[in-house]
Amino acid sequence: GIREARANLRASEAMARQGELDRDAAFVAALLALRSAERQRAVLEGHVTPSAEQAAAAAERAYSTGSGDFGAWLATQRALVELRFTVAETRIARERQVAELEMLAGVDAERLAGDGGGAANALASAAHEVTR
């Protein structure tokens, strides 16, 4: 009867609260993953790639002047290709996280950020709304 209906109502309310908590936790985890991917990409593009490009250029100069060998030049080229592949993977990971956050928040991050970019900041602002 009435007790059972009230118990069912309380159980439904508890499940709804748990669903909200799960969504909030998923949003925060996705936001942290997005920020991590952005930091990793920034380090790779800002520091590691320029150094690898300089090493590849030096190996090419050495090989072209006869003071370096083909194996060393080839190794720097392979490393540079692998690095570029890794940078592409970090960009893909970032875009996946943006898509995940957009789904969880129910917003379009590009629209929130406007033409200037900054999807992560726009989603961080949306996080405040979602986790309230």
Write the element-wise H/E pattern from the N-terminal end onward: HHHH
Q: Biggest sheet: strands, sense, closure?
A: none
Helical percent range?
Answer: over 70%
Beta fraction? under 5%
Question: What this model shows, in words?
Answer:
By secondary structure, the protein is mainly α. Helix content is about 90%, strand content about 0%. It contains four helices and no strands. It has helices spanning about 1-65, 70-105, 110-115, 120-130.
Report a brief summary of the structure.
The protein has 132 residues and is mostly helical. It has four helices and no strands. Helix 2 runs parallel beside helix 4.
Mind sketching the topology for me?
Elements: H1 2-65, H2 70-105, H3 109-113, H4 119-130
Structural features:
132 residues; mainly alpha; 4 helices; 89% helix; rod-shaped
